[in-house]
Amino acid sequence: MTKIMLLSGMTGVMLCIVTIPTMVSAQNPVLDQYISEGIRSNLGLKQKKLDYAMNLSALKEAKGLFFPEVSLQARYTVARGGRVISMPVGDMLNPVYTTLNLLTASDLFPQIENEEFRFYRPREHETKVSVVQPIFNAEIIHNYRIRKKQTEIAGIDIERYRRELMEEITRAYYDYQKAWNLVRLADTTCQLVRENLRVSRSLFENDKVTIDAVYRSESELGKVETEQARANNLLHASRAYFNFLLNRSTDAPIELVEEIPVPVTLSLEEASAAALEHREELRQLEQYRQMNQQVVALHRDKRMPGLFGSLDYGFQGEEYSFTEEDDFLLASLVLRWDLFQGNANRQKVQQARIEGEKLKELQEEIRQQILLEVINQYYALRVAYESMVSAGKQKRSATRAYELIRRKYTEGITPLLELLDAQTSMTGAAANLIIARCDYFSRLAELESAMGTIRIDHEIKKHDP
Fold first, then answer.
1. Which residue ranges form the domains of the chain, and what is each CATH number?
2. How far is 410 from 213, CA to CA, in rounded Å?
3. N or C, which end of the chain has less CB nearby within 10 Å?
């Protein structure tokens, strides 16, 4: 069952002039709690947070490229066949040995055979630890900076979605409040029409009106019951949508608070300045432009050489043996310099610069669109407030007129047609006031969203990226 509270003891329109824009969530603690719940549980926002987590993981991956790469490699080889290498040691040394034997008159230097050995040893193993450390690599540096900008853009996207979600929750809340009040008005109107029908029947029985007055009252009751059914359908639909935004059961109860409408005296210039300062779209585009600059630098600096350090330590031999006689150590400095790639990098630099110019034009276009949105929402809010004030006056006048005419009808002085007209005017004025009040708060939320100044719960923002 819906619970409704009044922040003020008045149901009419009360004027209160302020010098700063009033946040809807700050005026309504119940709505503020619902917004906090929606920020925590909304499925769309959770998906945005997962996108941010993915970008954050990619940033950590890019950061890891600055650290050394360490690997363990083990290889055991069995070989058969292959090239045979001949070493003519006999041909080179035997003449020398013969001469030495003649000089010494001895056989101390025997003749030796030429040697042959295969290029691949029958068995061989190599086990080593390799360490490769980037010393300077422009691609790694710019790739990290690009990933960082992508992560910042994803974080801003969460803020933008959160702001839009808060606006949508606020509008859905007041749509439900409007439907709830219309249902209550329809119920009250039904009671009035039933009472009119009772009075019409009493007057007919006393020969003060004809039977057509009774028929007209019954017809009017049918119309009001139809409007009552439509209002109930609207109530169920608006409640389901509001709970959908909060990721709750569609029939969960909603607590309502009636606030005092407060006009905003903020100037259009101040609203426009706030929008240019706070809107996430402009901050996102600025991050895109900075990321584009890193892309330009990435392709441009590919012409620079990369320097790496390499260290290998391990063991080699025909049998597995890990002694000081089997180990080896290799240390290297590796320079890689791509001297020519068919001007591919130059064209990529040019393409990235063109993309940067497009982003600059897009940034100006979005800036103009935001200013136009602020103008539209600013004047829409003013119209909504004036409509609400006018609707309040019409309701008071229509209510007084109905009370006077109904008294006369009860006395049999005024015809039923005049009573029904007065009743229709009063009901229409009350419905217009309900719609105008809720529309005013919706327009206020839309202006705040256009300005990018809807308040975000600090506890939630503290735990969010």
1. 3-68+137-306+347-463 (1.20.1600.10), 83-120 (no CATH)
2. 13
3. N
- Strand spans (E) along 140-275: 255-258
Q: Which two tokens stand for residue 385?
A: 């407030």
Extract the tokens encoding 459.
Answer: 């506890």
d(CA 446, CA 389): 20
Q: What whole-number percentage of the chain has pLDDT above 70?
A: 89
Residue positions counted in the chain: 465
The answer, yes or no, to whether residue 14 has pLDDT greater than 90, is no
Q: Cα separation of 4 and 11, whole Å?
A: 13
Choose between 338 and 377: higher pLDDT.
377
Residue 307 host element (H or E): strand 306-317
Strand order in the sheet with 306-317: 69-78, 123-136, 306-317, 327-336
Residue 94 to residue 83: CA distance in whole angstroms: 26
The residues, any chain, with a CB within 8 Å of residue 49's CB and separated by 6 or more, are 158, 464, 465
CA distance linking residue 10 with residue 8, whole number of Å: 5
How far is 236 from 242, CA to CA, in rounded Å? 10
DSSP state of 19: S
pLDDT at 19: 32
pTM of the model: 0.74
Q: Name every residue whose Cβ is closer than 8 Å to that of residue 461 and which is 6 or more positions away in sequence.
A: none
Q: What is the pLDDT of residues 155-174, one digit of tens each?
A: 999 988 899 899 999 999 99
Burial of 399 (0-12, 13-18, 19+ CB in 10 A): middle
> What phi, psi does 363 have (nearest 5°)?
-60, -40
Tokens found for residue 202:
């009493």
What's the average model confidence in pLDDT over 412-437?
Answer: 84
Question: Does residue 458 or residue 188 have the better pLDDT?
Answer: 188
Q: Looking at the predicted structure, is the pLDDT value of residue 210 above 90?
A: no
- Specify the DSSP element, H or E, that contains 329: strand 327-336
Considering the chain, what is the average pLDDT of its residues? 82
**109: helix, strand or coil:** coil
The whole-number pLDDT of residue 300 equals: 86
Tokens linked to 49: 């947070």
Residue with tokens 């210039």: 269
φ and ψ of 336, to 5 deg: -125, 125
